[in-house]
Amino acid sequence: MRNFKRILLPLSTLGLAILACVRLQPDDTLVVTATVAAQTAQPAQTQIPAVIPPLEGTLINPTPNPPRDIGVSPGGGEYVVRAGDSLSGIAFQAGVSLDALLAVNDIANPDNLEIGQVIRLPDTPTTFGSDFKIVPDSRLVRAPGSSTFDVFAFVERQPGYIRTATDIVNESVLTAAQIVQRVSLEYSVDARLLLALLEFRAQWLTNPNPADDVKTYPMGAPASPFGFDRNGLYRQLTWAADQLNAGYYGWKGRGLTTLEFEDGARLQFAPGLNAGTVAVQYMLARYNTLGVWQAQVAATGLYRTYVSYFGDPFREAVEPLVPPELAQPQLAFPFPSGQTWYFTGGPHGGWGSGSAWAAIDFAPPDDLTTVSSGCYVSANFATAVAPGVIARTDEGTVVLDLDGDGDESTGWTILYLHMAGQDRIGVGTNVGVGDRIGRPSCEGGFSTGTHMHIARRYNGEWIPAYCETCAEPRPAFNLSGWTVVGYTNQEYQGYMVRGNEQRFAEQGRTSPENNVSW
User: Taking a C-beta distance cutoff of 8 angstroms, is the pair 288, 281 a contact?
Assistant: First the structure.
């Protein structure tokens, strides 16, 4: 096995290094070297929801999902470290905090693991959490029907702080409605759930003048222990959306089975839950105690707030959101035929590490001796992988809709990230295979080096580029006959295979092992 490294390297030599997207693990472990000014943590409080009118109408009592064989036992067990593993990734899969993992292991340096090292796992809890279903998958994901909800009209009708709240995002002042819409689109999480959480956690929909700490930290996520803040609506909502995705896709594809709370209590997820409910339970468990969490995930908790504003979430649920027989349409490489590009990033988060590892990265064949920085606008174009229509473009983002209806919450969509504003294709443009999309750069998301990030979604759900541990089958990511293969719990690592040929994800241009073309 190739000895892949888990930590991305800083750009020290332009001719050798092509860096991938900066992102955070579900436990906020920063894995890309960066200098960030230290911020002072502000208090964050778990808010108790205001009195809500009684529910009206008949609510659906959803049937339990078939119990899953999640492969856990009360014995805890051991984990043998493989190339590319990180302690945070092992902890996430085991459903424990880093502190809990360190407490049962004698590890001198948690940042330095060795291949073959045996990590003892804490005993699996024997107590199950709530079996009450909160939302269907299609109201966690920005799925069919989500696009008909008007965030701006809804916010305008509310008497609370959300009507006047603003935040600065990338040096632009955005309204709360703009931020909710943006986070919903970026993370592919339904806006109604984000709004319900804003009311449930901070009463932003009803209270015109919440306390200062509630204005600053409405989701209750405090400043990060790594020295950067989470202040403001955009950072708070992106944190919440990433946690929701971490629970949703962790349950579906990364072996997540347990929860851990601030007070050290641990639970297994109840049998018969759906991924959408697991996602909400996981997010609400963060920075929370077991007792408070139990009230929040009950019928009188967040669910009641949601139903009061948006009705029964199960009434128009789309099930299954991703059909088990789903096949990927034929896709070409996202660059011109005859060019050689570089496969620089294996499976990683579609948007944030919490999402399914739906994305892979390519770097363009530019002459780096002509540029003075790792971030530049490429002379080469990314291209359409299939026929379709451009559904959205915004700050480095281009979304190609393959079913042609212009609604990125239905059918197959392809996300391109880091496309420069100049020469970026316009919304509504019909394209064929090989048509120009835009030039790779560092624009959009977070990037420390020019490259192209590309990911798949179906009905709004991120489709992992590779997933040997998925509870439900997912089609392999295939581009021009090359199939992506990843490694369990090893973000950014992997290779592409076509017949007897292999190309490995590496950050550089000097080795033929990551050269790809068609």
Answer: no
- 502: which strand partners? 497
The CATH class for the domain spanning 341-516 reads mainly beta
Which residues lie closer than 8 Å to 207 by C-beta, 6 or more apart?
A: 50, 160, 161
Fold of 78-120: Membrane-bound Lytic Murein Transglycosylase D; Chain A (3.10.350)
**Residue among 232, 127, 226, 136 at smallest CA distance from 182:** 232
β-pairing, 412-417 with 430-431? unpaired
| Residue for token pair 């000014």 | 37
pLDDT tens, residue by residue, 314-343? 999 999 999 999 999 999 999 999 999 999
Amino acid, single-letter form, for residue 227? G
pLDDT of 420 strictly over 80:
yes
Beta-ladder partners of 175:
166
Helix (H, G, I), strand (E, B) or coil at 354: coil
- Whole-angstrom distance, CA of residue 481 vs CA of residue 413: 19
As a whole-number percent, the residues of the chain with pLDDT over 70 amount to 86
Question: What residue spans of 229-373 are helical by DSSP H?
Answer: 233-253, 275-285, 290-296, 302-310
